[in-house]
């Protein structure tokens, strides 16, 4: 802890103690250090209230006590520190309201009060801090009311007020570049922001408020007459969101509940806009404005080909849209279609978890419809379909695929009976999608029969055989070869079938009808040969030891016949003996009545009736 005797150091002008382990209360005697210009004691463990005596430090210009455990209210006496340039009290446990006396700090530039437990309204007197350039009160959930005072702060460049409860504001100061009001209680965009020019604002974050209305600027008339023809007697709403320097707009999590066409149209003409995030805003419908994302697109006016274009002034017809837009996030809405091409600057697009049925080919960056889109996320759109090429084998093209191509090396189990893969990276675009985009091309059965993810088990005594036909993989159930059995229906090749005792499995190569070129139904290529259970040579004298033998090498002399000898791949009786079939044993020959010297070559003759 700091000793109270510290206040006797009358000539001390700097107290710098950051990042130590000082604890306890801050002695009020520090207020007696009239020459003190700098207090830097962040990242310690100081606790208790701020001493009101600090208000006597008229020469202090740097006041940093961030990330301690200070509690209680901010003393209004701090407004007496007229020389302050910076206040950092963030990350403490301060309560109560922000004192109005802060409005008496004429040269204060930086005020950081975030991550405390402050409450009430920010005092209107703060509008008197004409030199303030940066204000952060984020994480004080009890702060509420209006931010109207910031309009008077002519030097203000940044406002961070995230996770508060503000619900009102007025105009914006002329130099403001960043305004972050995420997770507050605004129900609409303040009228002054919509009707006045906001010349310097670059970043506006209004995420997760309660905004239910959005300015319908630049919306083309779509009323129709009794015959279904477009009625052109309704004036379009001229654009008047004057945000010429806006680069980033974040409105995610607000219940806008409006047509995606209208939302896009309201912001498309902002020339410097780079990032738009509007997740979970209730955007719905189809966006089909001609040229909507491309050059010479007509947001905020009537398209040249629109039936209502005749008679409009040229200035009302031609307007380039989204000249700078690079990142667009419209995920988790209810958009059913985007049937206009992407603008040339777009490279990161998220349309995931909508209700897309249609999407213009330019977003996929394939064929002749090319854009700069490098990343496209369309996951969570189960009704969206697109043709995808499946390769029988190989790898994704190193330079990227010119068309949508299933990655032949990325299959992974999804269900018990099928596996799915992802798309190869395109020449320009990496696409995240659901397998529903074309399940027949992205998924294949790993057992059973069927195609895509529609797979059913094979019955007993059958095995599953894969083949490539019509540009996709499929499986069918084949009967096990004669003289074999199989239980469970989970076999993947004929060799999983078990030949009966005395038989062994052998492969029978099937003749192919063609080359296997995708798209030709006659060119079905099986993934394995067929099979045949063959009887061991010299059966029953040669047989297998058990069912399920896989080769002729499993055949050997049968133990059912006594005295048999194996010579190479043949069995027979020894010299001087022949097989008595009735007794199933080799018995001695009757000397002088038959030839009983077999040798190696004639051993099989010992199994025939002797020659008399």
Describe this structure in words.
By secondary structure, the protein is mainly beta. The protein is 3% helix and 25% strand. The N and C termini lie far apart (123 Å). About 10% of the residues have low confidence.
Report the portion of residues in β strands.
25-35%
Question: What is the distance, rounded to the nearest whole angstrom, between the alpha carbons of the first and last residues?
Answer: 123 Å
Class by SSE composition: mainly beta
Runs in which pLDDT lies below 50 for 5 or more consecutive residues are 220-226, 228-237, 294-318, 511-528
Major sheet summary line: 15 strands, parallel
Q: Counting H and I runs of at least 4 residues, what is the number of helices? A: 3
Which strand order spans the largest sheet, edge to edge or round the barrel? Answer: 1-3-5-7-9-11-13-15-16-17-18-20-22-24-27
- Overall geometry comes to elongated
Q: Tell me how many strands there are.
A: 43
Arithmetic mean of pLDDT: 85
What percent of residues adopt helix (DSSP H or I)?
under 10%
> Over the alpha carbons, how many angstroms does the gyration radius reach?
42 Å
């Amino acid at each position: 802890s700091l000793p109270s005797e510290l206040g006797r150091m009358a000539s001390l002008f700097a107290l710098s103690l950051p990042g130590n382990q000082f604890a306890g209360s801050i002695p009020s005697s520090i207020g007696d250090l009239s020459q003190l210009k700098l207090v830097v004691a962040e990242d310690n463990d100081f606790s208790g209230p701020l001493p009101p005596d600090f208000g006597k430090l008229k020469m202090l210009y740097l006041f940093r006590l961030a990330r301690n455990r200070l509690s209680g209210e901010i003393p209004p006496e701090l407004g007496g520190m007229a020389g302050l340039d910076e206040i950092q009290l963030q990350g403490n446990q301060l309560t109560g309201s922000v004192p109005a006396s802060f409005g008496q700090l004429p040269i204060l530039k930086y005020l950081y009060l975030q991550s405390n437990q402050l409450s009430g309204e920010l005092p209107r007197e703060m509008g008197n801090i004409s030199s303030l350039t940066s204000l952060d009160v984020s994480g004080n959930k009890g702060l509420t009311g209006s931010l109207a005072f910031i309009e008077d702060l002519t030097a203000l460049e940044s406002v961070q007020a995230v996770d508060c409860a503000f619900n009102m504001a007025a105009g914006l100061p002329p130099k403001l570049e960043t305004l972050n009001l995420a997770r507050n209680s605004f129900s609409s965009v303040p009228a002054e922001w919509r009707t006045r020019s906001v010349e310097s604002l670059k970043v506006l974050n209004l995420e997760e408020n309660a905004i239910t209305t959005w300015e319908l600027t630049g919306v083309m008339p779509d009323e129709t007459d009794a015959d279904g023809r477009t009625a052109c007697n309704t004036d379009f709403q001229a654009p008047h969101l004057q945000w010429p320097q806006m680069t980033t707009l974040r409105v995610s999590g607000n219940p806008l509940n409006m047509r995606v066409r209208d939302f896009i149209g309201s912001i498309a003409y902002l020339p410097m806009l780079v990032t738009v995030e509007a997740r979970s805003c209730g955007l719905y419908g189809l966006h089909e404005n001609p040229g909507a994302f491309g050059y010479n697109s007509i947001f905020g006016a009537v398209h040249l080909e629109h039936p209502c274009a005749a008679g409009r002034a040229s200035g009302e017809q031609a307007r380039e849209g989204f000249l700078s837009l690079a990142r667009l996030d419209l995920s988790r809405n209810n958009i059913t279609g985007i049937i206009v091409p992407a603008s040339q600057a777009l490279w990161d697009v998220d349309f995931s978890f909508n209700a897309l049925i249609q999407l213009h080919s330019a977003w996929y960056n394939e064929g002749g419809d090319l854009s700069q889109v490098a990343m496209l996320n369309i996951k969570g759109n189960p009704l969206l379909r697109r043709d995808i090429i499946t390769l029988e084998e190989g790898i994704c093209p190193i330079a990227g695929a010119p068309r949508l191509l299933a990655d032949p090396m990325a299959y992974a189990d999804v269900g018990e009976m099928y596996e799915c893969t992802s798309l190869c990276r395109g020449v320009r675009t990496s696409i995240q999608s659901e397998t529903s985009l074309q399940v027949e091309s992205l998924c294949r059965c790993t057992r059973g029969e069927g195609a895509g993810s529609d797979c059913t088990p094979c019955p007993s005594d059958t095995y599953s055989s894969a083949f490539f036909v019509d540009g996709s993989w499929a499986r069918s159930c084949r009967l096990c070869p004669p003289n074999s059995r199989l239980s469970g229906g989970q076999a993947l090749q004929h060799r999983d079938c078990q030949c009966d005792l005395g038989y062994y499995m052998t492969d029978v190569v099937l003749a192919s009808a063609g080359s296997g070129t995708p798209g030709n139904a006659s060119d079905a290529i099986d993934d394995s040969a067929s099979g045949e259970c063959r009887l061991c040579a010299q059966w029953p004298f040669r047989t297998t030891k058990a069912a399920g033998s896989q080769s002729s090498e499993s055949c050997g002399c049968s133990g059912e016949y006594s005295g048999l000898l194996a010579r190479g791949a043949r069995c027979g009786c020894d010299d001087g003996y022949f097989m008595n079939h009735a007794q199933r044993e080799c018995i001695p020959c009757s000397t002088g009545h038959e030839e009983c010297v077999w040798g190696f070559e004639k051993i099989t003759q010992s199994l025939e009736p002797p020659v008399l």
